[in-house]
Amino acid sequence: MGERGGERGGERGGFGRGFGGRGGGRGGPRGRGRRAGRPTEEEKWTPVTKLGRLVRDGKIKQLEQIYLHSLPVKEYQIIDLLVGPSLKDEVMKIMPVQKQTRAGQRTRFKAFVVVGDGNGHVGLGVKCSKEVATAIRGGIILAKLSVIPVRRGYWGNKIGKPHTVPCKVTGKCGSVTVRMVPAPRGAGIVAARVPKKVLQFAGIDDVFTSSRGSTKTLGNFVKATFDCLQKTYGFLTPEF
């Protein structure tokens, strides 16, 4: 009887409950310990899309090759491989949002994350989750998947590297409107805190901006700035 009980206990994994064999060995690593294993997960990345396989095999070496053919990026590891360690991310805001249910209010956390390499590539991700850490992690992944190219130009003579926006551009989200005007070299980024961070991540050194609407709504403010940068490639010029 004791042997059978031992066998049954072994099959069940002790007194653990729940799904997928989570219950056994209670003294094992929990929670934050997973972070140490994250690099190995990235090393073992197995692409599931054709684009991912081409990037892994070294057939595609630049993001511009993807943008040129308007290919959808479905795996964030593609951006990690092509951009590398120069890609920085920053959490712009974490805000609680609530939904009224029969049992009461359900609170979740919404994270706004911006990523960029400071060299003409920027992305914006918005993720909602029950936990702050999960929302931030999801926001970073979505921001990488939404990375766009930013066209840069000159204010006057074409001397040195492009440093500002190529022309006047306007972006909008909700009631917030953001307008960007080319600025001379050395003027710096004349903008509020939110668009300034996005522009720095995009690699723009000099620009004049104006905004109107409810700019205290950070979500719409950052989305309007992102829309503005997206429109820099929305027109044709002679070099094309």
Automatic annotation (TrEMBL):
<feature type="compositionally biased region" description="Basic and acidic residues">
    <location>
        <begin position="1"/>
        <end position="11"/>
    </location>
</feature>
<dbReference type="GO" id="GO:0022627">
    <property type="term" value="C:cytosolic small ribosomal subunit"/>
</dbReference>
<keyword id="KW-0687">Ribonucleoprotein</keyword>
<feature type="compositionally biased region" description="Gly residues">
    <location>
        <begin position="12"/>
        <end position="28"/>
    </location>
</feature>
<dbReference type="Pfam" id="PF03719">
    <property type="entry name" value="Ribosomal_S5_C"/>
</dbReference>
<dbReference type="InterPro" id="IPR018192">
    <property type="entry name" value="Ribosomal_uS5_N_CS"/>
</dbReference>
<dbReference type="InterPro" id="IPR005711">
    <property type="entry name" value="Ribosomal_uS5_euk/arc"/>
</dbReference>
<dbReference type="GO" id="GO:0006412">
    <property type="term" value="P:translation"/>
</dbReference>
<protein>
    <recommendedName>
        <fullName>S5 DRBM domain-containing protein</fullName>
    </recommendedName>
</protein>
<dbReference type="InterPro" id="IPR000851">
    <property type="entry name" value="Ribosomal_uS5"/>
</dbReference>
<feature type="domain" description="S5 DRBM">
    <location>
        <begin position="87"/>
        <end position="150"/>
    </location>
</feature>
<feature type="region of interest" description="Disordered">
    <location>
        <begin position="1"/>
        <end position="45"/>
    </location>
</feature>
<dbReference type="GO" id="GO:0003735">
    <property type="term" value="F:structural constituent of ribosome"/>
</dbReference>
<keyword id="KW-0689">Ribosomal protein</keyword>
<comment type="similarity">
    <text>Belongs to the universal ribosomal protein uS5 family.</text>
</comment>
<dbReference type="Pfam" id="PF00333">
    <property type="entry name" value="Ribosomal_S5"/>
</dbReference>
<dbReference type="InterPro" id="IPR014721">
    <property type="entry name" value="Ribsml_uS5_D2-typ_fold_subgr"/>
</dbReference>
<dbReference type="InterPro" id="IPR005324">
    <property type="entry name" value="Ribosomal_uS5_C"/>
</dbReference>
<dbReference type="InterPro" id="IPR020568">
    <property type="entry name" value="Ribosomal_Su5_D2-typ_SF"/>
</dbReference>
<dbReference type="GO" id="GO:0003729">
    <property type="term" value="F:mRNA binding"/>
</dbReference>
<dbReference type="InterPro" id="IPR013810">
    <property type="entry name" value="Ribosomal_uS5_N"/>
</dbReference>
